[in-house]
Amino acid sequence: MKTTIINRLAEIEKANDIKILFACESGSRGWEFPSPDSDFDVRFIYVRPLNYYLSVSDKDDHLGFPINDELDIYGWDIKKVLKLIRKSNTTPFEWLQSPIVYGEQTHFRDELWTLCQSYFYRKTNVNHYLGIAHGALETVTNGDEIKIKKLFYVLRPLLSAKWCLERNTIAPMTIGPLLTLMPAQLQTLVKDLITLKSASAEGFIIKIDPELGKYIDEEFNNCTGGAKDLPKESFDAEMLDTFFRNMLNRYDN
């Protein structure tokens, strides 16, 4: 599949007159807890020739394609990505940490990742992750039954929120480092669930272990309360503008 993805990205690059700066796996494969039927969620960042941006008209800043053969491909213009980074959006933070990379221009990821550190805002990140966890928790039925996919849509965001709140840094994308925040016995339990998920359909329904359920409830309340007390922050665009201009100059054809 990797060869298929790389070839598809090359086709997209040529057909749309873009330069793909970075392409990676997002979703459960990137988070390192896939199911056998998990899609390949390919995400990429691209730049267009300089003249594309020199227009009084609003321009498209994303590229999407129909899902085909379990392949979900989506890309964002570098300008859109930088705007989101200024808002401390978690999505670029995660893409840049993906353990599965399909392509990268030299040094691009390291340069942009370094820039991201100056735009981390705890409150935005914590609330984003809590929102995802809350949405997944609403799918619980009969008090303790949930699809195994949805359980991980509770656990990873909740642990990410806890990481941002307690460590005041961008949360890791992959599940492994996040598990270190949990008590040892729960780490073992979740690792066993990852093994189960690797052999089960995403719709497989399980019962939430009572101890894990209690932990989820307590940490959700702790993070929600902690986020309320965080101060407001804002960021200027100077470093982002500089980065944007550098990318245009470097890759303009």
From TrEMBL:
It comes from the Bacteria. This is Nucleotidyltransferase domain-containing protein. PANTHER family: NUCLEOTIDYLTRANSFERASE. Pfam families: RlaP. GO terms for molecular function: transferase activity. InterPro entries: RlaP (IPR018775). It comes from Pedobacter roseus. Keywords: Transferase.
